[in-house]
C-alpha cells in the first residue's frame, strides 16, 4: 500500500503543479521538481524511491520523449533545416562549451564536465512556445525559427548523449578505440532508424525498390496501425516506441533516445487508414499519447527526480559562485550565439534574431534526463554539480517568459533600440 500512497501524493503534486504553471506561465516541469524536493525534505516521500515508483518513472520518460518526437511534423522540420541549421549548431556548441569549461574550472573532472555540458545543451521548446503564445507571437517567422532549430538542437543533443554518455559512464573506454566503438554503435543505431524510416514503415514510396518489388506495398506500419479498423492504433505506436527504445538500449544508449526517434519517424500519413474516415486516428492517438505522457505517467519521472534534491543549506551556499558563473555564462553565450547565427546563417532581421536567442534559453526534459543519468543512475555528477545544474536550469527557464515579454515592444517596433558602433548605427528593434 505504500506504493499506492506515494503515487497518490505524486499525482496530487502533478495536479497542483499544473495549476501553478497556468497561473505563472512557467513550465510545469519546474513545479514537478520543486514538489518532489519539498515532499522528500519534509519526510512525506522517501529519499530512496520504491522499485514500483522507479519503474513507473522510467516508463514516464520513455513516453515523454516519444510524445515530443511524435508531435513533430517531419516534413516541416526538413523544410526548416536550411534556414535554421546555424542557429541549432552554434546555439548548442556555445552552451556546451561554457558548461564544460566552467565545470572543469571548478571541479576538474572531464567526465563530470561532459555530463554538465550535455545537460545544458538542449533547448526546452515547449516552454518557449507557451511563452510566445502568451504574447501572441507564436505564428511569427522567429517562432518558426525557434521551433525548427530547437528540434535540430534536440536531435543533435540526443546524438551527443548516445555517443558521449557511454564514454562518461565508463561503459566505453576513453581511448581512440573506445570512441570509435561508440561512434560505430551510434552509426549502426541511426542506420537502423533510417532503414525503418525508408523501407519498413512506408506503405508506399517513390523509391525504385517499391516498383521493382511491389509486394512491399502490402506491408508497412499503416497496416499495423490500421488493425481492427484503427481501434488499437495507440497500442500499436506505443509498442513500436517501446521496441525501438529497447533496441537503442541494446546498442548501449538510453531508451529515451530510441523513444524520441520512434516518435519522429512515425508520420501522420500512416494514420490515413480510410478515404472517408469517421475518426481522425492521428489526432485521437496523439491526444491519448500526450495525455499519458504529460498528465499522469510522464510527470512522475520529474517528481521522482525532484526527490533527489535534498535541501542542504551549506551545499547550496557553497555553490553560489558556481551557479552565478554558469548561469551568466550560458545566458550570454546562448543568446549571443543563437542571435548572431540567426542573423548570419538564417537571414533573420535583428529583432527576430534576438527573440530567437531569448527563445533558446529554456532547459527542460532532455536536460533532466541527462542529469538523471549522470547523478542518479551513474553517480558521475556530484551533489555540488547537481545543485548547480538544477539552479541554473531554474533561472534560465524563468528568464524565457520574462525576456520575451520585455523584448516584445522592440520586436513589434513600438520601442526603438539603436546601438552606435563608432559612426555606424545598428538598429536592433523593428524599423
From TrEMBL:
It is a multi-pass membrane protein. Its main location: membrane. This is Cation/H(+) antiporter. One of its GO terms (molecular function) is antiporter activity. It is found in: Membrane. The chain crosses the membrane at residues 6-21, 28-46, 52-70, 85-106, 112-132, 144-168, 174-201, 233-251, 354-373, 385-404. GO terms for biological process: proton transmembrane transport; sodium ion transport. InterPro entries: Cation/H_exchanger_TM, Na+/solute_symporter_sf. It comes from SAR86 cluster bacterium. Residues 14-399 form the Cation/H+ exchanger transmembrane domain. One of its GO terms (cellular component) is membrane. Keywords: Antiport, Ion transport, Membrane, Sodium, Sodium transport, Transmembrane, Transmembrane helix, Transport.
Amino acid at each position: 500500500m505504500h506504493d499506492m500512497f506515494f503515487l497518490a501524493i505524486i499525482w496530487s503534486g502533478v495536479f497542483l503543479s499544473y495549476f501553478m504553471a497556468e497561473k505563472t506561465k512557467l513550465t510545469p516541469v519546474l513545479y514537478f521538481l520543486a514538489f518532489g524536493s519539498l515532499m522528500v525534505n519534509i519526510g512525506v516521500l522517501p529519499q530512496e524511491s520504491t522499485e514500483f515508483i522507479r519503474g513507473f518513472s522510467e516508463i514516464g520518460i520513455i513516453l515523454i520523449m516519444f510524445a515530443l518526437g511524435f508531435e513533430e511534423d517531419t516534413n516541416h522540420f526538413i523544410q526548416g533545416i536550411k534556414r535554421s541549421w546555424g542557429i541549432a549548431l552554434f546555439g548548442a556548441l556555445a552552451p556546451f562549451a561554457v558548461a564544460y569549461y566552467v565545470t572543469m574550472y571548478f571541479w576538474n573532472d572531464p567526465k563530470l564536465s561532459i555530463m554538465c555540458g550535455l545537460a545544458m545543451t538542449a533547448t526546452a521548446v515547449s516552454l518557449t512556445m507557451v511563452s510566445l503564445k502568451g504574447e501572441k507571437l507564436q505564428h511569427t517567422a522567429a517562432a518558426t525559427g525557434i521551433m525548427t532549430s530547437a528540434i535540430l538542437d534536440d536531435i543533435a543533443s540526443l546524438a551527443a548523449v548516445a555517443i558521449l554518455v557511454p564514454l562518461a559512464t565508463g561503459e566505453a573506454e576513453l581511448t581512440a578505440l573506445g570512441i570509435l566503438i561508440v561512434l560505430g554503435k551510434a552509426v549502426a543505431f541511426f542506420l537502423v532508424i533510417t532503414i525503418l524510416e525508408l523501407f519498413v514503415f512506408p506503405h508506399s514510396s517513390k523509391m525504385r525498390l517499391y516498383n521493382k518489388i511491389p509486394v512491399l506495398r502490402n506491408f508497412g506500419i499503416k497496416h499495423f496501425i490500421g488493425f481492427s479498423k484503427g481501434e488499437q492504433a495507440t497500442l500499436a505506436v506505443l509498442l513500436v516506441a517501446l521496441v525501438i527504445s529497447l533496441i537503442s538500449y541494446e546498442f548501449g544508449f538510453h531508451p529515451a533516445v530510441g523513444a524520441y526517434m520512434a516518435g519522429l519517424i512515425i508520420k501522420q500519413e500512416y494514420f490515413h487508414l480510410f478515404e472517408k474516415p469517421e475518426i481522425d486516428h492521428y489526432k485521437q492517438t496523439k491526444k491519448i499519447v500526450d495525455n499519458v505522457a504529460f498528465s499522469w505517467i510522464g510527470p512522475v519521472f520529474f517528481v521522482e527526480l525532484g526527490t533527489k534534491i535534498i535541501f542542504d543549506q551549506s551545499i547550496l551556499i557553497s555553490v553560489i559562485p558556481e551557479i552565478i558563473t554558469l548561469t551568466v555564462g550560458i545566458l550570454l553565450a546562448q543568446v549571443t550565439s543563437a542571435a548572431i547565427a540567426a542573423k548570419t546563417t538564417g537571414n533573420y532581421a535583428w529583432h527576430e534574431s534576438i527573440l530567437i536567442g531569448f527563445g533558446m534559453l529554456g532547459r527542460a526534459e532532455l536536460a533532466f534526463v541527462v542529469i538523471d543519468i549522470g547523478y542518479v543512475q551513474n553517480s558521475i555528477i556530484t551533489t555540488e554539480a547537481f545543485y548547480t545544474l538544477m539552479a541554473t536550469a531554474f533561472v534560465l527557464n524563468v528568464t524565457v517568459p520574462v525576456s520575451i515579454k520585455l523584448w516584445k515592444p522592440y520586436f513589434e517596433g513600438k520601442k526603438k533600440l539603436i546601438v552606435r558602433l563608432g559612426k555606424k548605427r545598428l538598429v536592433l528593434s523593428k524599423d
